[in-house]
Amino acid sequence: MKRTQAPAEIEPFLSDASNFHGRAEGVAFPETEKEVTEFLRECHERKMPLTVSGYGTGLTGARVPLSGWVMAMHAMPALDIRPAAGPGAPSRAVIGPGVQLKDLQAAATGHGFFYPPDPTSILSFVGGNVATNASGSRAFKYGVTRDHILRLRVVLADGSVTELRRGEIFAEASGRLRIPVKTRQGALEDRFCFLPSYHAPAIKHSAGYYVKPGMDAIDLFIGSEGTLGVVTEIEVNLLPLPAKILSFVVFFSCEADAWSFTQEACARSRHARASRNDALMQSRSFEYLDAGSLDLVRSKYPDIPAAARAAVYLEQECQPETEDWMLDQWNILFEKHRAPLEDFWFAEDEEGQQRFKAFRHQVPLEVKALLIASGQTKVGTDYAVPERHFQAMREYERRRLEEEGLRGLAFGHMADCHLHLNILPANAEEHAKAWRLYGELLAKALEFGGTIAAEHGVGKMKTGFLRQMFGEKAIREMADLKKALDPHGILGRGTLFPETLLA
User: Which residue among 31, 152, 277, 340 is buried most deeply as judged by most CB within 10 Å?
Assistant: First the structure.
């Protein structure tokens, strides 16, 4: 296994897309599960901190080491598409943690399937998507990464290996969860841990360990941010490619119209899903860009209407025979909510759909460029709130930004009431002010019954806010769970909670 302690080779692993920075003694590049196991045993015996690293597209510092070594998963890109073996059986992909999302999606498409989760960065590793329970634009219809994981192989901190298949092991009524492992000596034994007693909000959520009465054991590791084990193999389900996809970018003169449009369109889509009627309007995504987002990309997209102060990008699956009816229904809805029919963009081919996706994804790319130019770390929210509080949260955001004299813009997953507010500080003074406001905004989201993280996780940047959300008792229960599977606390130190709780 390749290892390096050369500063120039370590440097790429000391930051992520948030511009958060750390330090490390070296980087290891395992190519097999056996090499992962051997290196973990070595770190466990030496009590050496070890941080698992994906591609670096994360936004919370989870993959950034604060000490010790990094285990980079780049050399584990195995990818095998397995069509259904028979009637009723799922089509699957078996992949290594270093497979990039774009490669999984391309391979699935080549076999007539698609992988539903669609995080913003197609360069991200699927192993990283599992670590954060990533979601993305299609979560409205298809759910999050967790909903598509069939099996995981995970190496625990001491080199023991567990293989978990969905539907086989569940938490006991007492909250005790059994994890079967094969030890370093080859013996089979059970490890036990107790689930924390907190309750997660009933909305899109990815903060802290997943906890649910009677939960499936596999779900504990999904979203655990590299703190409980190292994933070495992932099995996901694949779905048949839709017959046709209609894509729209619809422009509005104000956010209120965009929100009323989204509410009605979401209600229709939920009704269609509940009735299992694919012939009805059933969008799979609603992506929102506010006025600040549009202004940021106007130079690259001069065909954005001059009067547009909000936009919604949506995708609708349909059959060829229902396409004309679908278009009529959407046109009626656009007109009802004051979206000029002469201004919206429409595509029904792959080239057009990719162009619209690039338009949506250009915003975070421009934000990143601004941060690099100013030398500041990202101050971007990932909270979500219940639908009944969405407008109040947005009004509060706008008022507080104006009062503090800070520049900000919002984009993201409007159907899930989950927008990413990006505060753009120009200097260190504004950066400090932005983080103070960030904490205030999170407190307001929690007051509304929301979550501090809907898809990006907690990492090292939001540990204080996780305590704010769940309380001291819950944080200690999380630490106790971790110690049951990682007695020396070597994995992901500083992620989720302070390492002092692992003593």
Answer: 152
Amino acid identity of residue 378, one-letter, is K
Tell me the CATH number of domain 2-72, given options 2.30.42.10, 2.40.30.170, 3.30.43.10, 3.40.50.1220: 3.30.43.10
pLDDT in tens, 351-382: 999 999 999 989 988 998 888 888 887 789 99
Q: Reduce the DSSP state of residue 23 to 3 states and report it.
A: coil
Pick 244-447's CATH classification: 1.10.260.40, 3.40.1380.10, 3.40.50.1370, 3.40.462.10. Answer: 3.40.462.10
Encoding tokens for residue 376? 């500041």
Residue 251: both structure tokens together: 């422009």
Structure token digits, residue 3: 């290892």
Q: Is 444 helix (H, G, I), strand (E, B) or coil?
A: helix
Q: If you search the block for the tokens 């999302």, which residue do you land on?
A: 101
Q: Which two tokens stand for residue 1?
A: 């296994």
Contact criterion met (CB below 8 Å) for 386 and 448? yes
pLDDT tens digit string along 403-421? Answer: 999 999 999 999 999 999 9
- DSSP strands (E only) in 46-175: 50-53, 69-72, 79-82, 91-95, 113-114, 149-155, 161-165
How far apart are alpha carbons 283 and 319 in whole angstroms?
A: 13
